C-alpha cells in the first residue's frame, strides 16, 4: 500500500513536469517510459522494477513500456502517436528513450525519423506523425527508491546539435524547478550500484 501511494505521488509529479516542460518549450508531446525486468519464464514481468545492475543480473533482459505511465499531449494531433507507443515496448538502447535508459545520460537526437526500424521500432509512427527531434532523460525518485523513469520529449521539427544541446539544458532547468523528488543519478551513485 505504501509503495503504491509513493508511485502515485511520483506519477503525479511526473505529470506536472511533463506539462510544465511542454508548455514552457512549446513541445507537442511528452511521455514516460518505465523499465520492466523479464525473468526466465518469458512471460513474467516486474513492472517499474528495481533496475540496478544487481537486480538486472537476475533477469533475461530489460525493456521499456509507456502503457499506463504519465504522458502529456499539448497538440491533439499527436495523441495517436502516444497510443501507438503504448502498444509497444522498447529494448534497452532502442530509440532516444532506450539510449537514455541504457547510458544513464540525457540523450538527444536531431530527427527521430532518421532511425532505422531496428534502432527504433516505432520509427514508422514517428514518420507518420511527422515528429522531429527528441530528448530523453532517465530519472530516479527519492520516494520510490531504485525505480527509474525515462521522460521523453518530442519536437515538432528537426533540430540541429547546437539547438538540441540548448534545448536539453533548458528542459533540464524547467524539470529541476518543477521537481520535488525526481533527479538524475550522479556519477558517484552509478559507481556504487
From TrEMBL:
Question: Pfam family of this protein, just one?
Answer: GAF_NLP
Out of the domains of life, which is the source? Eukaryota
Domain NLP1-9 GAF span(s) in chain numbering: 2-183
* InterPro entries from the UniProt entry: NLP, NLP1-9_GAF
Can you provide one Gene Ontology molecular function annotated for this UniProt record? DNA-binding transcription factor activity
Q: What is this protein called?
A: NLP1-9 GAF domain-containing protein
Q: Which organism is it from?
A: Selaginella moellendorffii (Spikemoss)
